Amino acid sequence: MDLISELPDPILQHILSFLPIKQIVQTIILSKRWSHLWLTFPSLEFDTNFFRLELDLSKTEQSAEKKRLRLIDFVEQTLRQLKSLRKFKLHVDFPWPSSATVVDRWVDYVLENGVRELEIVVTVENGKRYNLPQSVLASQSLTVLTVGDCKLCPPLDGFRLLGMKRVTLLGVFVEDEIVKRLVSNCRFVEHIELDSCLGLRSVWLCETHELLTMKVHNNSGLCELGIKAMNLQAFEFRGQFQPCGIDISSCKNLKTLILTMVAITDDWFHDGITEFPMLEILALSYCHMLESLRISSPHLKKFILCGCESVTRLEINAPCLLELEYSGDLISFSLNAPTLLQADVHLSPRIFDNPWFVKQIEFLAHFNHLEVLTLRSRTGKTVVIPEEVRETFASPLYGVKHLKLKIIKPLFSPSIQDLVRAMLWIAPQPETISIESGFGKKILKFGYEKLRDEAVRHCCCASLPITCWRHCLKELKFENIREDEEKYDLHNFFHQNARILHFNIFHHH
Prior knowledge:
27% of the residues lie in helices and 27% in strands. The protein contains 15 helices and 27 strands. The chain starts with 8 loop residues before the first helix and ends with a strand.
């Protein structure tokens, strides 16, 4: 007895939703019960894998064509018989131009069915573009529209997308005026994404009161963008290192600003940042025209500065900052962020000699009050501070409790013993040290015992605010350190260097 088929329709539809489209088709062929479910399925997705033929050498081109036509006919019949449909997703790369008429019919079927979410990506031969049916831009049922690799033409009887909330254009050919008219007629649109579109030159979106988020990525040829949206909360722009005038100064409620590969200057940034008093997340990546940044933001919680190679000075005054990510070489740096909890730092110097290590110690000292600090390094060698430098300077991170090291190219890294030794000098009394590489994450957990005042006065770190691990280590746990040679080296290192107290070492896998 087929017990699964006895389940209620909503549960069976939920089960089907986890299957690839080809398996669903195979399932409904076996049972009329499942076929009924198919026609009331709320979401249909036909992707390129569904139409891609799995041919072997014994099959002729003629038989392959018959199979393709059967698949097309199956989609056709399914869409004609649908009883309800909330979401329809179609990704096809039909090789012949006449297939456009087939797709036109399918789109008409789902629009007549009152589909609310439509995602359509159509690629035809010789780089030609499929013209999106005008009926799509005149639909009053759509709330979510995603279009890829097509061409948008304005509907003859105007836009009527009254209920549209999300619009995404991917690799679409579309002109400025169409985007303006599209947005102005979508009075309730909350999210707009323009990615890799062609035809755009100057886009100005005005009085879009409901717009909350906007993403503009890799639109070759776009040289001007202006947005007047009082309620915009997130703006993300990824350029191609080409100049593009961006005016978002009227978006007073902006909370998230992400700029990547944008040709903005210090003046643009400093003038603009003062316009966003509610800003909470700021990310600047590969903006090579920036040189000196002063960030004073009362609500900023997360700041990212990555790959901005020309920046030589950074000043941060952010009383609510919780997270900081920095990637680049050492720069002049000042930080006023008393609430900062964690930072992720990737220093990538061209040459690291003793003067560079001295500057690194001064740079890291800004993060001494953190709970968690993550250091990223290409090989791990940047954290191995030379002995002559360690003898001259104090440890910069005596207040950090959890120190993490992430190594990008582990084959060229120092031994785990050298890395642990180096990290214990940088952070002399951590609760955990973790070393993550392509070989997994190795963790050391430390437990300490408070020394008597007399013992503290006679130890080598009496001048520091804390006692270093050598004099108060009581318990040590290893996790995920599986190599016997590494275990042996670490055993020897700790037994030889932690001499004040006896301690136990535990292994955990």
